[in-house]
Design brief:
Strand content: 35-45%
Structural class: mainly beta
Helix content: under 10%
Shape: globular
Order of helices and strands: EEEEEEEEEEEEH
Number of helices: 1
Number of strands: 12
């Protein structure tokens, strides 16, 4: 699956393409003002809370990517969730920045599988390896297609993973690693 920015002038709209790049299978839009589930200052009311979420569609199904703060501080730990329209959680990933001993935060998915998105060692192109936490075995990667582009493009290469969860992991990597 390929995650591609729709326009070089609009960094808020992205689309998902199949591996052959011939078919658009979905997309997502960043919220103009993101609102956490546990926000102290609420811009949107409870009825309009969806306006503060990332709206995603994939294969005709609607999803929401929401976030909440696990800890607050100079650098906060954040939990991202992939939710259906009835707010049931389908996948969950934590961005842990405190006490990691590293410059970049850890991206750890706890649901539906225990996996981690690593950091890129490349200089020109980024390649984020995805591994199982328990065994350390590689699962796949989320990587840039080329070093110089007008529109951001990420290849989500996670064989065997459900497409909605793979797309969610690509979105979280895009948010955290860029």
């Amino acid at each position: 699956m390929i995650l591609r920015q729709k326009s070089a002038l609009d960094g808020f709209a992205y689309e998902f393409l199949d591996g052959t790049e011939s078919l658009v299978v979905g997309g997502f839009h960043y919220a103009w003002f993101a609102q956490a589930k546990n926000a102290r200052l609420r811009v949107f009311s409870a009825e309009d809370a969806a306006k503060g979420d990332i709206q995603m569609t994939l294969h005709g199904q609607a999803w929401r990517v929401r976030h909440c703060y696990l800890s607050r501080g100079y650098v906060s730990d954040i939990r991202y969730t992939l939710e259906t329209t009835d707010e049931s959680i389908h996948a969950q990933a934590d961005v842990l920045s405190q006490n990691t001993g590293r410059r970049l935060p850890r991206i750890v998915m706890a649901q539906p599988a225990d996996i981690e998105v690593g950091t890129s060692s490349g200089w020109l192109t980024k390649n984020f390896p995805v591994t199982y936490l328990s065994t350390g075995q590689p699962l796949g990667c989320v990587r840039e297609r080329s070093a110089i582009t007008f529109k951001r493009e990420l290849v989500i290469d996670l064989p065997g993973m459900e497409p909605a969860v793979a797309a969610f992991l690509g979105i979280v990597a895009l948010i955290v690693r860029y």
